[in-house]
Known about the structure:
Blueprint: E1 8-11, H1 13-23, E2 29-33, H2 38-49, E3 55-58, H3 60-67, E4 75-79, H4 87-91, E5 97-102, H5 107-121, E6 124-128, H6 137-142, E7 151-155, H7 158-167, E8 171-175, E9 192-197, H8 205-209, E10 213-215, H9 228-246
Parallel strand pairs: 2-3, 5-6, 5-9, 6-7, 8-9, 8-10
Antiparallel strand pairs: 1-4, 2-4
Helix pairs in contact: 1-2, 5-9
Amino acid sequence: MPPSDRVRLVVGLQPVREAIRVHQGKLDSLLVDVRQSPRLEAVARFARDQGVTNIRRLAAHEMDRISGGVQHQGVIAFAPPLQLLDLEELIADKNLIAVALDEIQDPQNFGAVVRSAVAIAGAAVIWGEHASAPLSPAMFRSSAGAIEQARLCRVRSLRDALQRLSEAGVLVIGLDAHAPEALHKLPLDGPLVLVVGSEHSGLNRGIRACCQSVAGLLSSGTLDSLNASVAAGIALHTVLVSRDNTGT
């Protein structure tokens, strides 16, 4: 039962629970390991209560095959495809807070950034379709289910998208551990995008050129760089604190 363009493979206890909660009876099917486990029984019961009718029990080796090597913890769901936003929809949001990902190729980092974006600020996530981790079961799992609520925007060219956002009046700020200016010292009201670069090379030159400002997060000088999701989380929290202090 491979995923198709009609369904999306979701694996792991928390991601599957969130998929059930969000999609309820629209979930195509739920697969549960035949082995008896209170946690697995709880997921199956929750699915039935939410209107999921196609629930099947499978042997562990069948679950392993279907998951494609991604740790499933005994549950697999086939959920509706993700609904991606158009860039113009984000531009129209006068209260926009978004995180743009510049060549984040590790699905674990990608998913963790999505989790931070949803949990901390309900922020949108923008990324280019090239040189980025794909939307995959591993990425969904690392988001711990946050992918089901995320505002996602995949663009053909991140550089072009950032230029378009800037032209529309959105403040684009690149994050760089070596930037002389701290993020919390910048004006952070109004629509804005925080750009997170690859852990290996940071912001590439073309993306940096699209940023109106480049700012750092740490003032101690003890850490050279942060994991992408940690950097995104700190930056988003900084934005929210700034807006609370200014009443915006």
